[in-house]
Amino acid sequence: MNLGVVLIYEAKIDDDMITNTESNEEILARIGHDLKGMIARIRSCSYVLYKNFEKDLDEDSREFFHSIERDCTEIKSIIHNLIAVDQCYEENPELEFHCVHINSFLTDTIQAYHTPQIKEKKVKLHFEDTEESIHIHIDQKAIRRVIESILSNAVKFSNAENDVVIKLIRYANVAHISISDQGIGIPKKLRPYMFDKFSRATRRGTGGEESSGLGLYIAKNIVEKHQGSIWYESEEGRGTNFYIDLPVRERF
What we know:
By secondary structure, the chain is of the alpha+beta class. It folds into two domains: 24-85; 98-247, Histidine kinase-like ATPase, C-terminal domain (Heat Shock Protein 90, 2-Layer Sandwich). The chain has six helices and seven strands, in the order H-H-E-H-H-E-E-H-E-E-H-E-E. The radius of gyration is 20 Å and the shape is globular.
């Protein structure tokens, strides 16, 4: 059984709330911040209720609580993407570049990446590091967002007990990252739109997961702000490989 989380957001829009100079993205961002707070409260209340009544819950009731957790996670991701569109990843990026040991950065990012979908699908993440120590200049928060966005897609379109493999190598002056899944692949008709803003290539994952159509758009924007490149290869029924190249340099 599935339980959808329905959020009704009511706001009186007047001259004090929205000025004539605000863009649609700015309005969405402000509303998104409010919705994030609501989602956090829903998750908190659901967790407390679950813990208080866990021993008395039947299987269907437990599934209700698990559905709330899944839906909150998905909605939070969608809101996060909406807010990011208005943040530092478009015309005037406010990125902070620092020298980062990319090997350790990827290890920490992958180990910290946990979602309900990974647990439910029993998807395993494997990181194949290079023996070479690589330092690059990046905005850690921004690049972490890129990696998590692609991992999210990999898990979303994977089947139960599939593997997702992340590899790091260096060639010439490039740190090359690949993220490969064994999932359902990308239909040919959707491929021209994958990196579009509010992409028409959005579709549900193998577990019914929703998508905002913004994740890859934001990822491409971030990578290009780092003077890097991102692309993919996919075969329906066999999986998808995403590739990220980031320049290795002593100074940015």
